[in-house]
Design a protein that fits this description.
71% of the residues lie in helices and 9% in strands. The chain has 92 residues and is mainly α.
Length: 92
């Protein structure tokens, strides 16, 4: 029963993204799927494949969200060749 609660907690945390930008959401899903796969493989070596997949999905979702959010922040800036500086697009 304890495993079911942990799996539900990790899966609900992986569905809620910390950043709501488009690449962050995509990164969350891709990270969760990749993490679940890798965690399942590693966990199956110790006989706990389901737990490994749940932990891998949570960590992968968090990592994917952070990477996707960073890409969105980087893409919100543009480079002005005239003066060689970066500017936020939101100001203009």
């Amino acid at each position: 029963m304890k495993i079911i609660y942990i799996a539900m907690l990790v899966s609900s945390a992986s569905l809620v993204s910390c950043s709501s930008s488009p690449r962050a959401q995509t990164g969350t899903v891709i990270g969760a799927l990749g993490g679940a796969g890798v965690g399942g493989i590693i966990g199956s070596q110790s006989g706990r494949g389901l737990e490994g997949a749940a932990i891998g999905a949570g960590l992968g979702a968090l990592g994917g969200n952070l990477i996707g959010g960073a890409q969105d922040q980087r893409n919100d800036r543009y480079y002005d060749r005239r003066d060689g500086r970066y500017y936020d697009q939101r100001r203009y």
